[in-house]
Design brief:
By secondary structure, this protein is an alpha+beta fold. The protein has four helices and two strands; from the N terminus they run αααββα. It has a two-stranded antiparallel sheet. α1 packs across α3, α1 crosses α4 and α2 packs across α3.
Length: 137
């Protein structure tokens, strides 16, 4: 039987989701830092920010030499299969993930997102997380 190489060019999250979560984590993040974290060019990261702004997922205001972003509360997923759900739950999950942290060995439970410095975007409160027991992941 022929061995099949695993496909490694895909991920579960799009760069749009990653960038939106990073903006929620730091509303004054630089485009250069967005690009670096997502392993994109600044031009590609800028195009994604413009996509998100055009679609109404965030607003951008110039403050001096920096941009200040604000994630729009109540926005929904774009695909019809999830279109009746707000993206806030996914964003809160992603913001709570520390990209530098090692995976927890004994638990799948996640801590609440770290507190942000300064005023954050007006996102709805994070609902209680259902138990993941019995779900094969």
């Amino acid at each position: 039987m022929e061995s099949v190489e695993p496909r490694s060019s895909w991920t579960f999250l799009t760069n749009h989701a990653r960038i939106l979560a990073m903006i929620l984590r730091d509303s004054e993040i630089r485009l250069r830092d967005l690009a670096s974290s997502c392993q994109l060019t600044e031009r590609a990261a800028g195009a994604i920010v413009r996509d998100l702004e055009t679609a109404g997922y965030l607003t951008r205001v110039r403050r001096g030499r920096r941009n200040h972003y604000e994630v729009t509360p109540g926005t929904l997923f774009r695909h019809p299969a999830e279109g009746h759900h707000e993206i806030a739950n996914l964003l809160h999950l992603l913001v709570g993930l520390d990209p530098r942290a090692e995976p927890a060995a004994s638990t799948n439970r996640m801590a609440d997102p770290p507190p942000r410095a300064g005023p954050g975007p007006a996102m709805p409160p994070r609902p209680a997380r259902p138990s993941s027991r019995g779900i094969g992941v």
